[in-house]
Amino acid sequence: MLKWCEQWPERRFAVEGAGGLGRTLAQQLAAAGEDVVDVPSTLSARARLLAAGGDRKTDPADALHVAQVALFRTDLRKVTAEDQSTILRLLTEWHDDLTSERVRIVNRLHALLRDPLPGGAPNRLSPDKAAALMKGIRPVTATDNRRRDIARDLLADLRRIDRQIRDNETQMRDALAASRTTLTALPGLGIVLAAMVLGHIGDISRFPTEHHFASYTGSAPLDASSGNNSRHRLNTGGNRALNSVLDIIAVCQIRGGGRGQDYYRRKVAEGKTPAEARRALKRRLSNVVYRTMKRDQRDSTGRGRRRSDHASQRGLHGIDQRIAFGPRVPGQAEFDVRQAGQGVRVVARHGRFEIPGQHRRNAEPGPHRGEHTDETVALERHPPAAVGTFQPFQHRRTPCARAREQHHG
Predict the structure, then answer these.
(1) How many angstroms separate the CA atoms of 146 and 153, rounded?
(2) Which residues form the Transposase IS116/IS110/IS902 C-terminal domain (predicted)?
(3) Whether pLDDT at 283 is above 60
């Protein structure tokens, strides 16, 4: 197939269900360096319904609809070769299976020990507690003997499950250390939840902003406005596993104190119900998780520099465009960003000088409150340096401007 596709140098493979039945094919293509995207079956089904003869379903028609979705949707998940996030997802899924099996075994033990023990077994039954209780059982009938034998088998299974869970968590801890994540530093986010977050998200760069990430996790409310009525409703979609993780973190922070608890109490004081306040906290926690993962990604790839460095990497050099900061109002600045030698020159057309948002924190003190000067504001960047020059008018400098020039030399 790859040889047949060589006639199209620029190509993209769209695989429906790349995380399910199409996983093997998608992984083989990704390992070969191909551009592969995952098309959810819900989107291909919608494309089929909107097409002519939407009630017909054949393999060629399904392939056409999958290709149409991949052609017009730019936000599809890109399939990458298996990496550390794949290992973490396998470990978390196995951890879920083990914990579910443990719950079933404990429930069976409770049911078996209910008859021979007055009042039954206590809650939070551990292997040691179950073994101590079984030592006090004196079977009388053949049924009691059989019940005790089954309980012994279940106790052995419980010990085995606990041992597997400990080994699984050790493997998670090692995998998290290899990924160099700092998610575990967040209050309420342990190794299991951190592994679940990394395993489900994978590459955080596929989310352009924290708002896209919140929509994916289902923590962002849905807009349900109509006409002059502006309202929102609860989002029951998104990745429910990640939504559950955010809910657990929110509950832990509400109970444990700190900034999360303060935010929750402030929302309750504003008149929100406890459930609404917890959802608001989940939305904030979604932003925290996103920013933490973005910072970890920058650090791991050696791009943990200042914001001005990221601006130059995104291609400020060589562009020739006008940037307007907000709506055009009297007295507000307009800028031209043009290539000037090895740097970038920012020239104000009129009005007061304002530094672009991505550089404002890194800039040296410059003119404010509409003071027109010709001083140069140097942005903190690695060479080549970006310089913003303000020269809109030639007129008398104010005393504040002269004092600032003397201060900065």
Answers:
(1) 11
(2) 182-265
(3) yes
